[in-house]
Design goal:
This protein is an alpha/beta fold and 303 residues long. It has one domain: Rossmann fold (3-Layer(aba) Sandwich), CATH 3.40.50.1820. The strands form two sheets. The protein has a nine-stranded mixed β-sheet with strand order 1-2-3-5-4-6-7-10-11, sandwiched between helices. A two-stranded antiparallel sheet has the order 8-9. The longest helix is centred in the middle third of the chain and has 14 residues. It is globular.
């Protein structure tokens, strides 16, 4: 189904943002183990692939103003992981089930050849599982503000206080007023925050609520063993990796860079100034430029 992303913009939205939302996009879906996984595709079929994966509790619409910048030369897709956005729910959530979501979209988006995976935060964690189990589907991995070694935090998951119990609001405005970023941060661009917030809310028979149904950290697949697996897998992942972080991120700090260098000494590291954990909310065009530069100039090391 073809559609336009053009919808009501914040009055402060600049021309580049309005241009991005006006670009054509297809809404697509695929069944993965009986669960409907929905994703959005820009740029048509048959070009080099670029798959964008969101973080915990987020959704594909976080990429609406990033994906179109690559659509002239790439087949670009952004998915809703199961239990988030507009995708279906599961009774259980595991690293392998999220990896299956990513692989299914990678195989369904009709790109030419292996796909570049760009993943933020939690998406970068489960993205490793997707690549580990089907490396032939992927060319490279670009992880944005993703901590792969949490030993400095006692091997605990990030302290996102998401309560899986649903809270319902009487109207859209009340829900919108309660929207918060996790980890907490200010957003320098109100028009971006407004876009993300408006697409994070859905209407139900009980009222308005958020578009995430479960917190993965509450499921046994994401216990201490998950972090042990990541520490063992990232160094031997059979695809080149690069790491990007916000210079002012509360989650990925200079210590995290040390972790990245230890896990993948050959991997490029890009630090975006004046950006926090949700990098492209603070520095959207700078992130586009960084990803373009990586894709154009970054080559796998010789064997």
């Amino acid at each position: 189904m073809n559609e336009s992303q053009q919808d009501e913009c914040h009055p402060e939205a600049p021309a580049w943002f309005r241009w991005a939302l006006a670009q054509p996009v297809e809404a697509r879906e695929i069944a993965v183990a009986g669960t409907v996984i929905r994703y959005r595709r820009w740029g048509g079929a048959g070009k080099p692939g670029l798959l964008l994966v969101h973080g915990n509790g987020a959704h594909s619409r976080w990429w609406d103003f990033i994906a179109p910048w690559f659509a002239s030369t790439a087949t670009v897709a952004a998915l809703d992981l199961a239990g988030m956005g507009d995708s279906g729910q599961r009774a259980d959530y595991t690293p392998e089930s999220y990896g299956a979501d990513i692989r299914a979209v990678a195989g369904d988006m009709d790109a030419a050849g292996p796909i570049d995976l760009v993943a933020h935060s939690f998406g970068g964690l489960v993205g490793v599982v997707a690549v580990r189990d089907r490396p032939d589907l992927f060319a490279r991995v670009m992880a944005i503000d993703t901590p792969y070694d949490m030993r400095r935090r006692g091997s605990a998951p990030p302290s996102f206080d998401r309560n899986p119990a649903k809270t319902y609001y009487p109207d859209f405005a009340a829900a919108r007023a309660r929207f918060r970023l996790l980890p907490a941060q200010d957003c320098r661009h109100a028009f971006i925050l407004d876009h993300v917030a408006r697409h994070s809310i859905k209407r139900t028979a009980d009222g308005f609520c958020w578009k995430f149904e479960a917190n993965p950290w509450n499921f046994p697949g994401f216990d201490r063993g998950f972090w042990n697996m990541l520490r063992a897998t990232v160094p031997i992942l059979p695809r080149p990796m690069a790491f990007l972080r916000g210079a002012d991120s509360a989650l990925c700090t200079s210590e995290t860079e040390d972790d990245w260098r230890r896990l993948r000494p050959e991997a490029p590291i890009v630090v975006l100034p004046e950006a926090r954990h949700h990098v492209w909310l603070d520095q959207p065009l700078e992130l586009v430029a960084a990803l373009r530069a990586l894709r154009a100039g970054w080559r796998a090391p010789s064997a």
